[in-house]
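Researcher: Last one for today. Full complex below.
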Amino acid sequence: MKNNERIIESLLFLSAITALVIVSMILIFLLKEGGPFLLRTGISDFILGMKWNPDPVAGEPAYGIFPMIVGSVYIATGSLIFAVPLGVSCAVFLVEVAPIWVQSVIRRGIELLVGIPSVVLGFFGLVLLVPLIREYFGGYGFSILAGSIILGIMALPHIISISADAIAAVPNAHKEASYALGATRWHTIWNVTLPSAKSGIIAAVILGMGNSIGETMAVLMVAGNSTVLPEPIIDVLDPVMTMTANIVIGMNYATGEYQEALFATGIILFLMIVILNGISYHMLRSGKIIQ
Amino acid sequence: MLENETIEIESIDINLWYDDIQALKDISIKLPKNKVTAIIGPSGCGKSTFLRCINRMNDLIKTCRVTGELLCGSTDIYGKDIDVITLRKRIGMVFQKPNPFPMSIYDNIAYGPRIHNNLNKNGLNDLVEESLRSAALWDEVKDKLNKSAFSLSGGQQQRLCIARTLAVKPEVILFDEPCSALDPISTTRIEDLIGKLKKDYTIIIVTHNMQQAARASDYTAFFLLGEMIEFGKTKHIFEKPKQKSTEDYITGRFG
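Model: Here's the assembly. Have a good evening.
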């Protein structure tokens, strides 16, 4: 009996640490493959380098991923510009306004949106969005704008569900106090409910940003994959390449130092997402303490 | 009994249902102006429900249905073209648990005036000070108006909520068991405050605490199972109640 329990306990422990082990193994692998290259090239040269030419016909290869970092941040930020106002408004509607049946219909729809494979969304962007942008806004169509819209759609469900939880967690007593002072529903939402849910909503936004930076397939299909900075830098109709797209595009045939450079790109990506997740975790926790 | 009083709130045959459960039955009562009226009764007797009819907080509950007539002065509270916003400005409410907003002390008080009045900065400052003074809180908070309201003690928070209600200059203030979450000393301070406020406001207080009703009110209504059993001067209700069930409740035989 005693032995049995010990076996069950250790099995449970093993399952519990699996995720941790996998993450550490990935990290170790990334560092082993990309680390030496990073040190050799110099981290700042790698991050701030403007030129990416890993496989030159003649001359020295160049490994600078700055344009891709800009591309990733650009598209992720752009996706939030679409997703945050839309997502937070939708969350407010769901929690504060919608009758139960409307709420459940919309929530089903949102769950479906999560289930759409990113390659399908990318395909949708490719055949619909890119030509539309080309026609109505000009340029090449494959662009920061296209990537941002597609990623915005992908970030929407996460932002809606986390914000909705945060809004629903605002104590009823705050809202009642506001109504009792003669505030309207909108005044209450804007001045009491949303500020109280602020930390949860910010956490949702940062988490969404992390998701967007890490997303690959859809963005690869619509962003145009250019390894130079947009010109001028604010031109959202210019194509960019994200760090994730860089890895996917190169991975099939890269060898030697080129391959190491891709792993190094992975390290930088990993770090950015860890930082974003850390901030979001912190926001969620500090929010709980306030309430 | 009410011959020398002006009537502020008059309820005529108020019935209230949550879905098909009747929570109030034919409540008819006249509440005098500038007096404290206590509503007492065991849990679930409908006293808080009745209180929430007066400023229409029950509107927030979707399944709630009200019939009958409720007047505030000459205003029909459940009238067709009543503006709930204006009504709630006239009839303020203080809740069971202190519920300050997660904002600074100053912003808590300024919340109502910012909705209803168009005051300049000085006007608002004066109003905040005046409201905090009337709620006997000014001396304790005047140096930390920008601190979070949550930094105050429970009793201070409840006085802050009273000050917040005063800042919109209501005519009537509804207190829904305002001391049930407070210690005895804070309770005494709130009761003293209520005694002072009746000079300028009509006060209706729902309470579980019979000593509190006896100490703080001029009139008392006894509710039981959704009906109003007895209403009269507090002294009469506590010394010689007419109804047997009132006497049983007051002497602690049930409740």
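The two ends of chain A are 45 Å apart (CA to CA). The beta strands of chain A are 52-53, 62-63.
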